[in-house]
Every structure is written in C-alpha cells, then in structure tokens.
Amino acid sequence: MKYAEQLSVDRKRGQQQLLLTAAVVLVCVVALGITGFFDAQRFIEGAPAMQQLASEMIPPNFERWQHWITPLRDTLAMSIAGTALTLVLSLPLALLAAPNTTPSPVLGGAIRVVFAAFRSVPEIILGIIFVAAVGFGALPGVLALALHSTGMVGKFYAEAIEHVDPKPMEAAAAAGANRFQIIMFSVLPQVLPQLADITIYRWEYHFRASAVLGIVGAGGIGFELMAALRLIKYDEVSAILLSILACVIVVDSIGTALRRRLK
Hints:
Oligomer: single chain
Structural class: mainly alpha
Helix content: over 70%
Shape: globular
Number of helices: 10
Radius of gyration: 24 Å
Order of helices and strands: HHHHHHHHHH
Strand content: under 5%
Largest sheet: none
Mean pLDDT: 83
C-alpha cells in the first residue's frame, strides 16, 4: 500500500515537473517569436551585410597595439577598484539585510529594496550619469560598477549569511557575546569562503563590463573600441576585440586559481 502511494506521489511530481518544463519552453518560444527570431527573411536579407562586415574585420589590424596597453591597464584597474568598492558597500549592507543579523526586520526589508533598486539600473546607464556628474575617465566607470554590483553582490551576500548554521550564533549569544562579536566570530567565519567566491566571480564580470563602459566615456579599452567603430575601421575593431578576449581569458584564469586556493 505504501509503495503504491509513493508511486502515485512520484508520478504526480513527475507530471508537475513535466508541465513546468513545458511551460518554460513555451514561454521561451513565445519570447523568441516576439523578438523576430523565427523571421527567416530578415536573416536572408542580412546575410550579405554580415558577410561584408566579416570581410572588413578579417584579418585583424594590430598596428596600433601599443596605443591599447594603457587603456587595457585602465580597464583592469577599473574592474579591481569597482570590485573593492562593491565589497566595502555590500558586506555591511548584507549584514543589515539578512534576517538573522539585521537589528530590525523593517530595516532588513528596506535594504533589500535598495539592493533591488541598485541592480535594476544597468551599468551603462549609471556610467552615463556618472560621466555627466564627474567627467570622463575611469572614475565614473568605477562608481557605476560598484553601485550596480552592490545590488547584486549584496543580495548574494545576504542570502549566504541567512543560511549559516545558527548553532554557533546561539552558543556565542549564550556566552554573553554582543551582536558585533557574534557576527565577527560566529557568522563571518562560516561564510567567508562563499563571499570570496562571489567576489571573485564579480571581478571577472567587472572586467568585461568595464570594457563596455568605456564606450560611454568611462575610459579604458572601450573608448578605443568606440573610436574605431566611429571611424569604420572594422579590422581594428576585431583586433581590439581579440585583445579584450585575451585579457578576459587571463582574468578568468586568475579568478579560477584564486578560487582553488580559497577552497
């Protein structure tokens, strides 16, 4: 009898999962249809232009490679500075947002709303705003990266803190520790590896995002990329993209090595 009941429950669960999967696939297909993905005529008409563009991008032109070293350095510096500022902003806010460390549920809810507000505005829009506010260069890029990423990283930090083992916290509280001591000695030691993992992943993302922010005047290699596009030097565009790709591979490799050392 129990076997039959379990079989019925498993069958029902399987049907629910199948329906959910079908619903997700349907939504994806509808979204592709809305965006014109199934319009074969557009692909046919665009094929000659794509072929022409590809012929102008190949072979890549690396004649000006020396002019890209400083912008690439600025892009790397922007990604590191943006990640550092994100960490400084996200960690205290996450501690205020997590239900098990916040001094007030109302404050925790308010901080979560702030996180949602930060991550709802794309970096490129924030970059335009900060360029208008503080001028051209890497600084607006750093501010844009940090503000947007605080919304994302702070959310991840808060969720990691929320799921720590409560027993060390209870033991510290029973021993007379105050809130600060509980967080320092019972909460952070449990989540530091996970927080480090999140931070390194975000740094890898920041390098790619920094290249895009240069397009709106936030310095870095993106500025050189935009200049080449405006001058219709597609062979130089492809060379810059390959340079960015090489740097992304290096940054990702460093991130992977750091994560392995921290495990």
